[in-house]
Amino acid sequence: MSGRRQHWDTIFAKSEDDSRLGWYERNSDQILGYLDRLDLAIPSTIFIAGAGTSMLPGDLLLRGHRLIISDVSELALNTLERRIGPNSRATWINTDLARPLTAALPPLDLWIDRAVLHFLVEDADRRQYFSTLQEAVRPGGYVLLAQFSKEAAAKCAGLPVHRYSEEEMSDNLGADYMLMEHEIFHYTTPSGAPRPYLYALFERQCSP
Ligand SMILES: C[S@@+](CC[C@H](N)C(=O)[O-])C[C@H]1O[C@@H](n2cnc3c(N)ncnc32)[C@H](O)[C@@H]1O
């Protein structure tokens, strides 16, 4: 088992109560607000990077979307799958996004990542992550990234993080991806610590 898998499995094994996790959100309103503005077709095909045990996949399934739910932690995926129950619109992938995917992805309408990319601190890992994303999102599709902003803490979950500006996200995504909107969202951890996240929404341009 890789160090990354082991690290996250250990965290999820210890957390009987999700509401103690430093990234816990009682609801998905912040992300759902972006989706409302996009007015996505139903069903759309949405990839969730590092879903953890968040409420988002359940909420998106309730809205009728088709999901590919990924995480490096098999334990987190199993917990989430038990909570959500069988659903023919959900595909589960246990994968490390710093490595090439072994399964082929369908063309994606939207890629959502809250608090996963910022754990990739090595250039090669980030390059692989963005290469997977760039291949998978269809022209006209969207990318929503929510990562620690430049002002946020230097560590999360015991790991160093790479903090982002919207310019750096744009540079990594490349010229095909246009920044549509961005904001700093002031999240507070369950223990009361401030964690400013940069939310940035991009659209992949259609070729002329
Ligand atoms: C801070 S949690 C965020 C979970 C969820 N996105 C949320 O907002 O509640 C980070 C999640 O990313 C997963 N993760 C970390 N590194 C990963 C990687 N390289 N590939 C895939 N998932 C990863 C962890 O297992 C964990 O579930």
What's the total count of β strands? 9
Mean pLDDT: 95
Order of helices and strands: HHEHEHEEHEEEHEE
Mind telling me the CATH superfamily name? Vaccinia Virus protein VP39
User: How can the largest sheet be summarized?
Assistant: 7 strands, mixed
Number of helices, where a helix is a run of at least 4 consecutive DSSP H or I residues: 6
CATH class: Alpha Beta
Could you give the order of strands across the largest sheet? Answer: 3-2-1-4-5-9-8
Give a verbal description of the structure.
The protein has a single domain, classed as 3-Layer(aba) Sandwich (Rossmann fold), CATH 3.40.50.150. Helix 3 links the parallel strand 1 and strand 2 (66-71). The mean pLDDT is 95. The N and C termini lie far apart (45 Å). By secondary structure, the protein is of the alpha/beta class. The protein contains 6 helices and 9 strands. The structure holds S-adenosylmethionine. S-adenosylmethionine binds next to helix 1 and strand 2.
Notable characteristics:
single chain; 208 residues; alpha/beta; Rossmann fold; seven-stranded mixed beta sheet; two-stranded antiparallel sheet; 6 helices; 9 strands; binds S-adenosylmethionine
Secondary-structure map:
Elements: H1 3-14, H2 29-38, E1 45-49, H3 56-62, E2 66-71, H4 74-84, E3 90-94, E4 108-114, H5 123-136, E5 137-148, E6 155-156, E7 159-160, H6 166-173, E8 177-188, E9 194-204
Parallel strand pairs: 1-2, 1-4, 2-3, 4-5
Antiparallel strand pairs: 5-9, 6-7, 8-9
Bound molecules: S-adenosylmethionine.
